[in-house]
Prior knowledge:
By secondary structure, this protein is an all-alpha fold. Helix content is 79%, strand content 0%. The chain has helices at 2-15, 19-31, 34-62, 65-83, 101-114, 118-130, 133-154, 156-161, 164-184.
Amino acid sequence: MEAFLISTSIVALAEMGDKTQLLSLVLAARFRKPWPIVLGILVATLANHALAGAVGAWVTTVLGPQALRWVLGLSFIAMAVWMLIPDKLDDDGEGKGVRLGVFGTTVVAFFIAEMGDKTQIATVMLAAQYNAYLWVVAGTTLGMMIANAPVVWLGDRLVKKVPIRLVHIISAVIFLVLGLLALFVPQATPLA
């Protein structure tokens, strides 16, 4: 259950101001159909994070406990630094997707936008850290929905009221603490 709660919290915070949250806003403004957009976000996130979680689970079978501890610790610290770099929405796919409909456009756009994104990398690391694939994927998916669904329904009114820089700093501190725990507290890594 700890893996689920931490995964949900980290991804919900990390997603604030992320390019996929900006993508949610763009899709909501463009299509003005919240339900197919939210369902598309859910499907794309489940697919993307299921793959990322599988990679994280696989890593635990390849690396020994000491190597895993160092990889995880340094990866979490790198994520802390990455959280302090603001995301911008890329123009990839602009003007495309009308043939796919609102749901299809959202699924494709979100899946692609999540490739190599902070939350996908976090899912890999959390799955490796907790060795709890289903809990991590469920938690990271819920975190994505917590961060993105309100944006679809409330649009830029919500985004303008959230102090994104503060949220990024809090996320960075959480990742830093997780990294330091993985490096210096052997019990923080399940395989150690």
